[in-house]
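Q: Could you fold this chain for me?
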Amino acid sequence: MKKGLVMEGGAMRGLFTAGVTDVFMENGIEFDGGIGTSAGAAFGCNYKSKQIGRALRYNKAYCDDKRYISIRGLLRTGNLYSEDFCYHEIPESLDKFDWDTFKSNPMEFYVTCTNIETGLAVHHKYDSELDDFNTFLEWIRASCAMPMVEQIVEIDGIRLLDGGVADSVPIKYFEEIGYDRNVVILTQPLDYVKKKIKYGPAAKAMYHGYPKLTEAMLDRHDRYNEIYGYIRDKELKGELLVIRPEKSLNIKVSNKPDELQRVYDIGKRTGLAEVERVKKYLEQ
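A: Sure. Below is the predicted structure, expressed as structure tokens.
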């Protein structure tokens, strides 16, 4: 049996996931592997580095800092979130990512991105022999690179953007590679239905050289709703354990620390209510 943790993205909805996973770590719950998309990867990697509270801490500290996120930065560099500040200054010095613990922890960790030339998902497994700290951070940056407001990230000749375009909740991939006892953390409630994007013409114009990407962006709502249905079916059969907010978190991007705390606290309360059920499920 391989125990997996699958984490959806969703910008600052990811702090719900951070609240849940912090509770898991506080209660000694361990997984053989984890996989995250976008914020699910950026915040979820703290599970492998065993840094309880880090995702909330640095987001609250810098969410209203123009070095972290700004429209001016978007207009100047093409990145809403600063590449240097978010993926170098914070993890390297301001709120250090525990790279030594991350490397030594046997838990596998995968990051989901979208290959913009194929429109398909790339699920990158951290490899201690190939990935140094900067390379790993580049994979996280690629997974979080939202179309239209972030630059394309190129790694080993592959051009990448936000993993949520191709695979918002990579449960099927985890099942395919042998994870058969999975906990899935979603950031939308049970009744959520994703709608088609309204900026299709702008996306086609911006990414005119990447038709597979724009096709994936335009079809994303169908695949998203399909995977939510798949997860629900397996949950009802007892083949997955799913944790989700009871209602919409009503947040995406925010520069208000209190709002980030609110979403995180919902995650913590939800996680605390699920601890014993998760332990029992993983022990079966």
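A (continued): The chain has eleven helices and eight strands.
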